[in-house]
Design a protein that fits this description.
By secondary structure, this protein is an alpha+beta fold. It has a single domain, classed as Alpha-Beta Plaits, CATH 3.30.70.120. Helices cover 32% and strands 37% of the residues. The protein has a four-stranded antiparallel beta sheet with strand order 2-3-1-4. It is elongated.
């Protein structure tokens, strides 16, 4: 059996549902991600430029081959409204084989 490329979950947060959908759709259209989950209504508390801030945000959970992190990151930065968007990847330690194959295979070629 051939070893599959590692997969990752990339996280970013945005300020509006519209931006969450726009980034998600673009990542899928460009075949940079297999699936993006949008988690609404997060409460974020953080320090920015010396002030404590609090906002409601949308969290994007982006499933993609780890090798596409740079392209995913570039697309997020291109479309994101924040001066410094959160973009970080969490490695997937294990995944069910069929799901792993789907994540890797759906960005590699057309399935139609």
């Amino acid at each position: 059996m051939t070893e599959l490329d590692p997969i990752t979950v990339i996280l970013t947060s945005v300020g509006t549902e519209q931006q969450a959908v726009e980034i998600s759709e673009e990542l899928i259209t460009r075949r940079l991600a297999t699936c993006v989950n949008i988690v609404p209504c997060l409460r974020s508390i953080y320090r920015w430029k010396g002030k404590v801030c609090e906002d409601t945000e949308y969290l994007l959970l982006i499933k993609a081959p780890a090798s596409l992190f740079d392209a995913v990151s570039e697309t997020i930065r291109e479309l994101h409204s924040y001066e410094l968007p959160e973009i970080m990847a969490l490695p997937v330690e294990r995944a069910e084989q069929a799901f792993h194959q789907w994540v890797v295979g759906s960005v590699a070629h057309d399935e139609e």
